[in-house]
Amino acid sequence: MYGRVIGITIVGVRGHPVAVEAHIGRGLPSLTLTGLPGAPVQDARDRIRPAVESSGLEWPLRRIVVNLSPGNLRKEGPGLDLPIAMGVLAASAQVPGDRLARFSFFGELSLKGGLVATPGVLSVAIAAARAGLDGVVVPAPNAGEAALVDGVRVVGAPGLAEVAGFLRGTWDPPTPRASGAAEAPKHGVDFAEVRGQAQARRALEVAAAGGHNVLLVGSPGAGKTMLARRLATILPGLSRGEALEVTQLHSVAGMLDAGGLVGSRPFRSPHHSISLSALLGGGTGFVRPGEVSLAHHGVLFLDELTEFRRDAVEALRQPLEDGRVVVTRVAGSVEFPAGFTLIAATNPCPCGYEGDPKRQCRCPPHRVELYRQKLSGPLLDRIDIRLVVPRLSKRELLGETAGEASTPIRARVEEARARQRHRYSALGFPCNAQLPGPVARRLARMSSGGHDVLAGAVDALGLTGRGFDRAIKVARTVADLAGAEEIAAGHMAEALTYRMNLSEGSLARAG
């Protein structure tokens, strides 16, 4: 006796169809799984029989072999519980096989036969649509998430008995409603609360408008963290496509409590003790996305950057350059999107007071040099805006005049982003920071004055090829905020003020 069902396994964030073939033959009662099943899939052998029997269905007391094809793809996660169970039921003629071929099945089973919420359902629905299947059968708590994908019928079932009833025509599933966008968070903070720091406020506006990476350097209490946390209040909203990508990543990570479409750009702020695998992605068996991927289309904030592990910080080079991260294991490589904006904060020296006008730095020169060497040149070269945040003056601390609020700043940011989308509509780049260097040079539209300022900075600042391109991108964003078609000398000059050099003592002078 033979039955065949389509299941889906998740590798990275992509769903891959799996043919689940069940054969019932002679021999002692047993269930054997073949086809590179991972440990969670192997555990299904002990869950599926109680689930079938608890659902009022019959478990064949014969030798059962279930093959998961293709055999060269490792299958991880508990989502194959349901298709394995359905394959056995199809092989024992307890459900009709004609309807099975038109649906894919995904979900974890409880011992009582219920279908529990399972991470990654959005990826499953996308894979089912890509494979041309009519629909997907998933746990009822995940039905709204799966319904976000157009063109696929979603059957949300509370348990195995209902799935069998649906295939027999004795149970009519309710039509799931696509989960709406989650309500945009109330940040509880605003740029109006920031006193002084005019240059830092402007730099963050430029960063938000062009998607540029930022490094803030200053003594303790200067307001670096306060500024960074308010960046989220001026970011433009997510497009529908971006929201689906962010939701898919959070679904795979098991972070969609309500199952709704993520409605705002992520803001991730991991502690400096984070491990390399937690930052980039990894895990035993099922590889989960790390913080760099959970910040996709959003912001990754690394406070006290020099306190992070050196290997973790240096590993940021690939995602900062390519917008993706590749996690390599013995069983193969998994790729996650990681198109985030980095904002990092650090002190200028171990004690934190080098260049401070009020407190004297007591760090020996060699300790300051070792401290700065924690941030390599190649990493700094990938950060577009590097800025000193000075200590607030007494007048700024005691003043009662509020700064500009987040709402008008965000309006300017959205206008600048709209210009960039229009300019790069045929190329598919959403903002200036994501342009490849050759494209940025070709489309810069620089005036002769802007060109002269940049040429003078090549020698004065020792710009590398990457630094040269990034200066052009930042200047293009400054021009976009001004509504200018060409990069003028003033736009380029402002962009170059954000290229602070940490290795030549300029930190103390700028402070």
CATH architecture of the largest domain: 3-Layer(aba) Sandwich
Number of strands: 18
CATH class of the largest domain, please? Alpha Beta
Strand content: 15-25%
Strand order of the largest sheet: 3-4-2-1-5-8-9
CATH topology of the largest domain: Rossmann fold
Based on CA atoms alone, the radius of gyration comes out at 27 Å
Helical residue percent? Answer: 25-40%
Parts with pLDDT < 50 across at least 5 consecutive residues: 503-511
Count of alpha/pi helices? 23
Let me know the average pLDDT.
88
Described by strand count, sense and barrel closure, the largest sheet is: 7 strands, mixed
Can you characterise this structure?
With 511 residues, this protein is α/β, with parallel strands linked by helices. It has two domains: 167 residues, Ribosomal Protein S5, domain 2; 320 residues, Rossmann fold. The chain has 23 helices and 18 strands. It has a seven-stranded mixed beta sheet. It has a five-stranded parallel beta sheet with strand order 11-14-17-10-18. Strands 6-7 form a two-stranded antiparallel ribbon. Helix 18 packs across helix 21 and helix 21 packs across helix 22. The longest helix has 18 residues. The chain is elongated and about 85 Å long. The C terminus is likely disordered.
List the helices and strands and how they pair.
Layout: E1 2-11, E2 14-25, E3 30-34, H1 39-42, H2 44-54, E4 63-69, H3 81-91, H4 97-100, E5 103-105, E6 108-109, E7 115-116, H5 121-130, E8 135-139, H6 143-146, E9 153-157, H7 160-168, H8 198-210, E10 214-217, H9 224-229, H10 240-252, E11 267-268, H11 276-280, E12 281-282, E13 288-289, H12 291-294, E14 299-303, H13 310-314, H14 317-322, E15 324-329, E16 332-337, E17 341-346, H15 365-372, H16 377-381, E18 385-388, H17 394-398, H18 406-423, H19 437-443, H20 448-461, H21 465-482, H22 489-497, H23 506-510
Parallel strand pairs: 1-5, 3-4, 5-8, 8-9, 10-17, 10-18, 11-14, 14-17
Antiparallel strand pairs: 1-2, 2-4, 6-7, 12-13, 15-16
Helix pairs in contact: 2-3, 8-18, 8-21, 18-21, 19-21, 20-22, 21-22
